[in-house]
Amino acid sequence: MIDTFKADEVDEVYLIYTKIQNALTAEPVMLQLLPLERSHFAPLPPALGDPHGEVELFPDAWSVFKQMAPIYMHGMIFGAMTESYCAEQSARMTAMDSATKSATDMIHALQLEYNRTRQGCNHPGDHRDHRRCFCCANQRLLNFLHCIPLSGYNIQTFIYF
Fold first, then answer.
1. Would you list the DSSP string of 2-27?
2. Which of 65, 120, 130, 140 has the greatest number of CB atoms lying within 10 Å of its CB?
3. CA 71 to CA 69: how far, in whole Å?
């Protein structure tokens, strides 16, 4: 990336990644990596013991910059990849939590419908023991299940006999 920029094959290099705001939201961010601007390296406010005169660097500032620029780029790219990975995992966790809650609510509603159907059976003849009368309970439950979109799920999974 730095070599293609040096060879003037590209004018600017941007890094686009997903930044996590909190557990529920993430936003896309576009960050300019190259050319480096002075605003990226704003000087820190003076601290106690800072030199007041001219500072001599060994090796010279350009040599230090040539060594630090690739390290800075690698750090920025690694940070963006880590941030995007965390945002994706957070979104997956939130989606799975929501799906689990929805499935739990659905199972609870189906269990209530099944119990109401089983307890309300009034067949004459052999079906006097309502706890063992599954014929009409199964039929009403299956009629109820056909109204619920369960794409990709086996209906037998939700029925407890």
1. HHHHHTTS-S-EEEEEEEE-SSS-EE
2. 140
3. 5
Q: What are phi and psi of 16, to 5 degrees?
A: -115, 125
Record the pTM.
0.59
Give per-residue burial for 88-106: e unless 16+ CB within 10 Å, then b.
Answer: eebbeeeeeeeeeeeeeee
Q: Tokens 């006097």 label which residue?
A: 128
Residue 116 identity = R
β-bridge pairing 13-20 and 26-34: antiparallel
- Which tokens is 48 given? 């106690």
The closest of 71, 77, 90 to 20, measured between CA atoms, is 90
